[in-house]
């Protein structure tokens, strides 16, 4: 479940803007090998809940930890901004994203309640990637999304195109259908990050056939390794 901008989300957005900050963030030189990993949601507001009770935040956290380990194994620096299990301060988050080579927000997907109520929860599985088209770092963000998607496909994963379905509240423009990359300018984390930024929905938690697989450490490690490989390949060459 993503954090988006809309009438129903105004209160939540106000909170997110408090967390992620407004455009007075640090604009220091980019550390070309440093990745900021954001764990979507919080302990107290865990995001989507799977049909078996799995909390999205717990999966996001598990994946973040696996991704942090994998990025370090690729020789990259990592800032895990929820390392203490709760959001870092405003100042810490904005400062971190301002210096990063890439800001990656980790989520696991749900579907609209009406879609679930209609018994369609098994119709979609797989990952989705989102980048903002309105940021100055759009080209790098899209390049990294493509690199990550190719690595996920190389281990047998496939994109979910749920968010491109022509229903109200979805219908997100696809930047690359084959690679499952959507444009979503109003996502709070993509709007406010000061670096190239993307959001990954690792899988569809709301699908009862996917919940246990997504919760397994084996899946998290394998997918995180693929994402880390994709990240390393999309970064500029070391000076
Ligand atoms: Zn989410």
Structure, briefly:
This protein has 239 residues and is of the alpha/beta class.
Q: What series of H and E elements makes up the topology?
A: HEHEHEHEHEEHEHH
The bound ligands are:
zinc ion
Number of domains: 1
The proportion of strand residues reads 15-25%
- Global Rg: 16 Å
Oligomer class: single chain
Structure class: alpha/beta
Distance between the termini: 38 Å
Characterization of this structure:
By secondary structure, the chain is an alpha/beta fold. It has one domain (27-234): Zn-dependent exopeptidases (Aminopeptidase). Helices cover 37% and strands 15% of the residues. The protein has helices at 10-20, 56-73, 90-99, 113-117, 138-154, 188-192, 211-215, 217-234; strands spanning 34-39, 77-80, 102-109, 128-131, 174-176, 181-183, 197-204. A seven-stranded mixed sheet has the order 2-1-3-7-4-6-5, with helices on both faces. The longest helix has 18 residues, at 56-73. The chain is globular, with a radius of gyration of 16 Å.
Topology:
Elements: H1 10-20, E1 34-39, H2 56-73, E2 77-80, H3 90-99, E3 102-109, H4 113-117, E4 128-131, H5 138-154, E5 174-176, E6 181-183, H6 188-192, E7 197-204, H7 211-215, H8 217-234
Parallel strand pairs: 1-2, 1-3, 3-7, 4-6
Antiparallel strand pairs: 4-7, 5-6
Residues 1-2, 40-41, 47, 56, 107 line the site of zinc ion.
Q: Could you name the key traits of this structure?
A:
single chain; about 240 residues; alpha/beta; Aminopeptidase; 7-stranded mixed beta sheet; 8 helices; about 15% strand; globular; binds zinc ion
């Amino acid at each position: 479940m993503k954090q988006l901008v809309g009438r129903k989300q105004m209160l939540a957005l106000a909170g997110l803007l408090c967390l992620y900050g407004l455009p007075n963030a640090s604009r220091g030189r980019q550390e070309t090998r440093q990745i900021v990993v954001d764990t979507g949601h919080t302990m107290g507001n865990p995001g989507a809940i799977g049909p078996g009770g799995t909390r999205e935040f717990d999966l996001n956290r598990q994946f973040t930890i696996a991704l942090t380990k994998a990025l370090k194994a690729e020789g990259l620096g990592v800032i895990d901004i929820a390392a203490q299990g709760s959001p870092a301060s405003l100042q810490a988050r904005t400062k971190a994203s301002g210096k990063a080579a890439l800001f990656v927000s980790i989520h696991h997907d749900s579907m609209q309640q009406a879609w679930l109520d209609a018994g369609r929860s098994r119709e979609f599985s797989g990952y989705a990637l989102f980048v903002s088209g309105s940021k100055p770092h759009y080209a790098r963000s899209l390049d990294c999304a493509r690199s990550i998607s190719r690595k996920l496909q190389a281990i047998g994963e496939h994109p979910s195109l749920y968010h491109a379905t022509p229903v109200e509240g979805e219908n997100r423009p696809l930047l690359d259908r084959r690679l499952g990359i959507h444009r979503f300018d109003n996502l709070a984390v993509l709007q406010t990050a000061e670096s190239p930024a993307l959001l990954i929905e690792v899988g569809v938690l709301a699908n009862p056939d996917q919940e246990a697989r997504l919760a397994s450490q084996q899946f998290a490690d394998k997918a995180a390794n693929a994402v880390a490989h994709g990240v390393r390949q999309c970064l500029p060459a070391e000076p």
